[in-house]
Amino acid sequence: MASLRSAKPWLRNYFKENYIPQVCEALLCGLLVSCPEDPLDYLEVMIKHIMESGLERLFWDMCIDPAVKPSIRRLSETYLEQLFGLDDQLMTPELMTKACSFYTGNLVKTFFSIWKHATLLHESENEVTVQKMAKAEKHYNLRLQRGVLCNWHLHVEQQQQKLTEILLKIKETFHNHKLRKTLTKWRDKARRKNKEREDDLLLKHEILLKKWKIRSKSKLTPGEYFMSSEESLSESYPRDRSFQFDISLLPLKAILQIFHYLSIRDLATCSQVRHSWMSMTQRSALWNAIDFSTLKHMAIDKYVVMTLQRWRLNVLRLNFRGCLLKPKTLRSVSHCRNLQELNVSDCSALTDESMKHISEGCPGILYLNLSNTGITNRTMRLLPRNFHNLQNLSLAYCKKFTDKGLQYLNLGNGCHKLTYLDLSGCTQISVQGFRNIANSCSGITHLTINDMPTLTDNCVKALVEKCSHITTVIFIGAPHISDCAFKALSTCSLRKIRFEGNKRITDSCFKFIDKHYPNIRHIYMVDCKGLTDGSLKSLSVLRQLTVLNLGNCISIGDEGLRQFLDGPVSIKMRELNLSNCIHLGDTSLVKISERCPNLTYLNLRNCEHLSDTGIEHLVSIHSLVSVDLSGTAISNQSLGILSRHKKLKELSLSECYKITDTGIQTFCKGSLILEHLDVSFCPQLSDETIKAVAIYCVSITSLSIAGCPKITDVAMELLSAKCHYVHILDISGCVLLTDQIFENLQRGCKQLRILKMQYCKQISKEAALKMSTLVQQQEYNPEDPPYWFGYDGEGKQFTEQQKKTTTDNSELILKDSFGSSEEEIT
């Protein structure tokens, strides 16, 4: 581009940006080397080739044949100048003038710079020094300003922080004052409402008690004079005695639901009221399940035959437990072709011949209870032949069948659908018998073997060899079972185990539970002395465990319970029984309240180290419904604390000697939904306790005041007047009670089912016998209370000397009895 040096800049840029010299170079090199016959066509082709490739990929040899490229040299700028016709003179005068001017200027500039540098060197050093000093002074001033500013900023922040704290304290003080004022008003209002409620309850109590006494004096029946508590409060609303309600007007479903709660004796009574009631009791749905066990003390053979003959097509469930029936009466069961459940336990009249008729007439039985009957191997032969769908079988305390009878279970179609088997008390069964069970009933899931001292680990091993579906195991009264049985059961997916009174079981068995039973939900290990804190540590990883009963395991302490509750098992824990674990203290209660939010039942009976301080933590377990603190050292303070829970339905305080009437009254005021109360052997309690129960806990169903010598007939009158839902009542040892209580109980506690009157000297045998016809179960003993009650037949407490004398006499009696028994044995 030498010829364009004198051209205008835009022209030179145009050539350079469009690659015109390079294009010309490439085309010229191609023409010089190729020498085509038609240069124009060649140039046209090459220009198209360059356009397709792009100017960015343009090279000087792009138009040359690749075969001759290595021998061709690139055209220099000189050749281009010649091609453009600029080879006349390479160096022009203008260029020479410019070159000389540039050289002279550059030389002058160089020497001038050297002179300037040499002349101004000294001045520049002084200026640099001045600049440095000025910069240093400025930097120093900035540091001083920064330091002052930082101190000022810190001071300001501190002042602001102090002001903020003061403001927060003012707000907090104001808020606390406001909250305290609000809480004071709420507390006053709550106290006022509680006072009004207590006054209302006391008023109701006084009115009902007054009317109860009036009714007692006038000898009116309850239906003639009974008024509800709401009606009794106001005299301005007269009672409409002419109003009558016919139950037949209710929907059929509601009528059936009501009559389903009645026993067969009650149904017979209702059928005699009127024709409409009789038609209601004749509904076939009411006779699907018939329970004759409530009439077991009566001669009911004729009635049983008539009932079964009439409802033979509707009966699905029959219960003859403990009934004294004739063999001919039991044969009438064979008429019930659709029978599914049959309970003939404790029926001494049941024979193999009766079972033959039943098996032939009722092939669809699913549940069969033959406990404590005289069946033999003949009946065992009938079971697999006729009861093809049998699922539940109880042979408890049947002593007359043998191992061979168990082998019969495999005859015919066998009892392969059997899932539940009870062999309690069948001590005649050997290892071979259990092996026969495994061959015949491999689908068993629930196994119960209680009161069987002959049961060994080998029996369990023989059974588990083929019964791998077992999920529930109950071995109560099997002292020879050891950890080896747990190892054998590791092939089963157990979900419930229950052992009681076994000293050979140790912490090693829980290692098998931890590894092989991850889905276990219920563990009952009562009175197993070999279990220690290590057992609880192994159970802490069981996420599905909901019920744990380790009663009488006296080696368990606070540390073991802490390790147990620290695991994931505590979240789903529903029931926890640690009765007689005497090493537990308040620390355990704190841990239970922190880790068991879903706990509903807690038993800490005879945990002597518990105090009022630990009981305070139980209030935080809002799901708690039942608590047993019997035999502990708690006092009235604990009852005041428990009264704040509001949701307790069951409370046991037996042998809590520090509890008085005041504590019970405080607790009852806050526990209006209480259903079960056990204050037995609390000698300081009197009629005031029963009065508090009658006023505040009218829904109570079970009450035990055994061993309370200060209770009188007045207390029973209060109880009968208000608590009409009592089912269970224990007044054993209440030596001041007389026959008068029966009249009150008959009128007020019509739902009473169990009555215990041991050591009630002033209650006559005639009155007790008359009362026994009105309850299902009764215990009566007119003798003086034993020495361990702590008082005599008049309710006077024994002195220390009397207790010692009585204890020595009892020991002598025991020694004499043991000595005489040894002589008889000899």
TrEMBL record:
Q: Mind telling me which Pfam families this protein's record contains?
A: DUF7885, F-box-like
Q: Which UniProt keywords apply?
A: Leucine-rich repeat, Ubl conjugation pathway
Query: Which positions are tagged coiled coil?
Result: none
Per the UniProt entry, the signal peptide is none
**Stretches assigned to the F-box domain:** 244-290
- SMART domains named in the record: LRR_CC (SM00367)
Q: Where is this region: Disordered?
A: 799-826
Q: Origin, by domain of life?
A: Eukaryota
| InterPro entries on file | F-box-like_dom_sf, F-box_dom, FBXL15_LRR, Leu-rich_rpt_Cys-con_subtyp, LRR_dom_sf
Q: What is this protein called?
A: Dynein regulatory complex subunit 6
Q: Which organism is it from?
A: Echinops telfairi
Q: Which gene encodes it?
A: FBXL13
